[in-house]
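Hey, quick one: can you model this chain's 3D structure?
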Amino acid sequence: MYNDASGDQLRIIFMGTPEFAVPSLEILINGGYQIVAVITAPDKPAGRGMLLQQSAVKKFALEHHLNILQPPNLTDVQFVEVLRKLAPDLQIVVAFRMLPNVVWQLPRIGTFNLHGSLLPQYRGAAPINWAIINGERETGVTTFFLQHEIDTGNIILQEKIVIDETETAGSLHDRMKVTGAKLVLKTVQTILKDTTPLIEQKQDKELKKAPKIYTEDCYIQWNRETTSIYNQIRGLSPYPAAFTILQGKNFKIFSAEKILKAHSLNPGEMETDGKTFLRFAACDGFINVLDVQLQGKKRMPVREFLRGNRLS
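Sure thing. Here's the predicted structure for all 312 residues.
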């Protein structure tokens, strides 16, 4: 048996930092589970004034008067000793950094993670982005017990999510954090009941990866198929956003339409009436941009951009 205690006696440590993790923490609190500590990233300076900013998880934890830990170093002896004294039965990780063995092995039951894909596919830091960039029609969320190799532990539960053809990384993120929170709650309930056998992650087919997004992943190569470019734009919106070069500056594209039709333009050439539309040629059609931002300017609809910029 995983556990011989009831849910309200289970001592849980929750680890997370961004907004994606907040619904999972909230659903546990609303479910009456005992959160003995919340571990999140240290406050960081941000903005023009470089003022210290709290993580979304910390703000939520403060509102609910939870015990908060913000260790700069997860292997620090004093921090590990604090964890031991907390005597957690279970640790839950949602959008946090990689844990050292001494931390994830500490709880009596173990440590499980919520990942934004149907593992073993899309292991890595950016599963939401890469699923859309690659044109997937389905993804999901997975809970699994941590092992030494990242995102490779035994699967507890999974939930599938359909990806709409107009979905952006932002909209999928917002849907997934809600679905993920429900799966976290269901996972804790499953662990308490000991009703689901663990599933080993099989690698009998080619695995798609989800590495961190870099600048070169955001640059649009216009000599590709229109649908591929369209998926790149969706998969990087709203952040960090796909971009091209316009008037010698980075030109971010947050949303667009794809137009599949033959043309005689070179890839990357631009068409516009100077008032209502701006589109770029791909190898088999056009990308008609809708929501844009020129470097040094604010984000705006393309019609507003065209009113303030003369393009030939």
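One thing worth noting: The chain is about 25% helix and 25% strand.
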